[in-house]
Amino acid sequence: MHPSLRFCLVLLLATAAVLAGCSAPTTDATPTTTAPTTASPPTQAGRLTLLTEEYPPLNYEEDGEVFGIAVDLLDETLTRFGTGQSIEEVRFLPWPEAYNRTLIETDTVLFATERLPEREALFKWGGPIYPERAVLYGLRERNITVASASDLQHYRIAAVRHDAALQKLLDLGVPASGVRTTDDQADLVAWLYDGEVDLIAYGEVPGRWLALRAAENPHRMTPVFTLAEYQTYFAFNRNTSEETVARFQTALDRLSVDRGIDNLTVRDRIIRQYIPPVALARTAFLTEEYPPLNTAANGTVEGIAPDLLRAAAGRVNLTLREDQVRLTTWTEAYRTALEQNETMVFSTARTPDREDLFQWAGPIARLQYVVLAERDREISPDDLARHRIATVLDDTSATFLRDAGVPDAAIVYETRPDALVDAVRDGRADAIAYPLITARTLLAKAGIDPNRFEVVRTLGEHDLYYAFNRNVSPIVVRAINMSIAELKDGKDEYGVAPYERILYRHVGVECSSGASNLTGAMAVVNLTAERVASDAAGTFREIDEGRPPFRDPADPEVYAFVYDTNLTMVAHPNPQIVGMDLADRVDVTGKPFRNEIRETAKTKGSGWVDYVYVNIDESRLSEKTTYCRLVTGSDRREYIVCAGTFRDCGT
Fold first, then answer.
1. CA geometry: angle 495, 305, 514, nearest 5 deg
2. Is there a domain that residue 503 lies in?
3. What is the pLDDT of residues 597-609, one digit of tens each?
């Protein structure tokens, strides 16, 4: 059973194999220590009333269907239970209502329920379902550290009434008066992001789910303290017959024994659908020698793609084993990922003919595909069909050649990238069709000066991706996608994203394939400066919304942003960096370019500043130039208005 893609985004945010805690009523409205004195009559012939709450990834509802670890385990258990029931009978209720109904209604089962000592005699139990974790979340940029429970008194904390996380806070000695509570869990994220509280107490994965539901970036939140870890169960009304509970438990236990054709138990297969680290730990990642994307070095596979993959796996709390990332031929890697479960091939061009063959994560980087030949051959770019051109079998370069009118008879197919150099060296081919940076690297590794070769023709560009087998859980693929996005967007204390460091280490700085827009950048800055002078506050609000005229409608990558003279960002289309102190932050080369922007604006009034920045649209590091101008706002404060553009290969 696969959840919808929308909720797949949620579960991919899991950063641990042990997941978040579920609700635990602790007030008069939801008694936990006193059993009811009366009970309703039993339901028909051992049939169960199935109750739960909205609490992903254990139980959740999406587009009229029910999903989750507990739901899928229940589905398989009911199949073996023999009453003819299905998960279509599951009812989602507020936790207090579901809890109280289970206390008083015979043959009612509630899931997923924390098995607390004070509840032991109130229910009969079936399980376990899955371990969970309740945490305290803070905002990443605040760098809050909680070393022990005694530190909690220094912070404003919020929690949901009747939630297990709230009870854990109280157990740790936090006074009830020191916790802001709500009946609506959505308030937690709103209060945290608005600065009304310092920390929120909730389940680890459901907390990120709340952030997504609120249209917030879940990666701004980071766990700073673990409140509790525990197991969850199916809780039966205590008047349910022993025979019914025993049959249910027997059916549930079968899920840890019954195996499919993949030799996985039913339980393991369900867990792997929802928990990325579990699935990724069994996945084989296949690639070819394709420097600087992937290459054998120091007894392992290194390069942009393996480094990014390992970092993305680390974001879901998994360290990949060395034997999981393997070099082979491209043809073998590609066909294996097509045909075998638990496999992925990289670095793969995402072409229309491949789109439905795989699930995709990325992009990793963008490569330029060219025909490369020795300069003295003087091959015409319009006369490729008359020459023998070597490329790798099944590589995108071959598709580009055929699209350029080169007949198949003129293409020399090799199975290994290093064989392309051999083909040219021994005269079997006149030229190489391959990504430019990869071809030059292969020539250098073979002891041939790459400068002896020239680009005869540029065939095109492609973004390269991780291509997962179609049977890999969509949640796992989305987890990697979310992790890659965080590695590209999230900056360290120096102002550099991990992705930038990976690119710089293996490739360096490249020009942009798009056209520079110096005129547009100047126009946006000059218009914005005039508006700030007449209405600073109103202009800042419009800049934050990222709409014209403060974003060039013809070139959306050219947009206004504004610093104060302390280099605090006061307006930017990315709300995550508004309010951040960016003084002394550097680019990936170590240049404190924002300090230079301030110096240029204050000493010259206006000017251009060059630096290196990640070009997300092209998945490469590119030179960027920003025009800046000092202006006095309507509030009589000085501001630095800026807009930038990437430098193209012609500039």
1. 65
2. no
3. 999 999 999 999 9
Question: Which residues, listed in sequence order, are joined to residue 367 by a DSSP beta bridge?
Answer: 462
CATH for 189:
3.40.190.10
Q: Within this chain, do residues 324 and 386 fall inside the same structural domain, yes or no?
A: no
SS3 (DSSP) at 225: strand
What does the alpha-carbon distance between residue 601 and residue 572 come to, in Å, rounded to a whole number?
A: 18
Domain boundary pick from 418, 444, 461 = 461
Task: State pLDDT tens for residues 354-369.
Answer: 999 999 999 999 888 9
Between 82 and 300, residue with greater pLDDT: 300
**Mean pLDDT for the stretch of residues 246-275:** 92
**Which pLDDT score is estimated for 14?**
42
- Provide the domain count of the chain: 5
Longest C-alpha distance within the chain, in Å? 97
Residue 612, domain member (yes or no) = yes
Residue 27 has pLDDT above 60, yes or no: no
How many CB atoms are located within 10 Å of the residue 515 CB? 13
Domain with 419 in it? 369-461
* Distant-in-sequence contacts of 571-574, Cβ < 8 A, 24+ apart: 571/539, 571/540, 571/543, 571/544, 572/543, 572/544, 573/543, 573/544, 573/545, 573/546
Handedness of CA 73, 74, 79, 80 (dihedral sign): positive
